[in-house]
């Protein structure tokens, strides 16, 4: 499951403020007691909000899509305790 959030860094009203967008992922293949544990909510992509406006969704999210396509074809091993 993907989560999308945005936040401002620095002083929001100052000249050096920067609005960032963040994508988090939690994996539903984990045990239910582990899914929403903060250790298992993963930061997967962070970018300046203005870049999505300039370049569009397709180009902004391309690295994330490529990585998940790679994981889907190659797989991943997860060790749980």
**DSSP strand count:** 3
Helical stretch tally: 2
> Helix/strand-derived class?
alpha+beta
- The Rg value, from CA coordinates, equals 16 Å
Average pLDDT metric:
81
Percent helix = 25-40%
Principal-axes geometry comes out as flat
Low-confidence stretches: none
Biggest beta sheet summary: 3 strands, antiparallel
Secondary structure: elements and pairs:
Elements: E1 2-9, E2 18-26, H1 32-35, E3 41-48, H2 49-74
Antiparallel strand pairs: 1-2, 2-3
Task: Please explain how this structure is put together.
This protein is of the alpha+beta class and 81 residues long. The chain has one domain (2-74). It is 37% helix and 31% strand. The chain has helices at residues 32-35, 49-74, and strands at residues 2-9, 18-26, 41-48. It is flat, with a radius of gyration of 16 Å.
Entry keywords:
81 residues; three-stranded antiparallel beta sheet; 3 strands; 2 helices; alpha+beta
Short note summarizing the structure:
With 81 residues, the chain is of the alpha+beta class. The chain has helices at 32-35, 49-74; strands spanning 2-9, 18-26, 41-48.
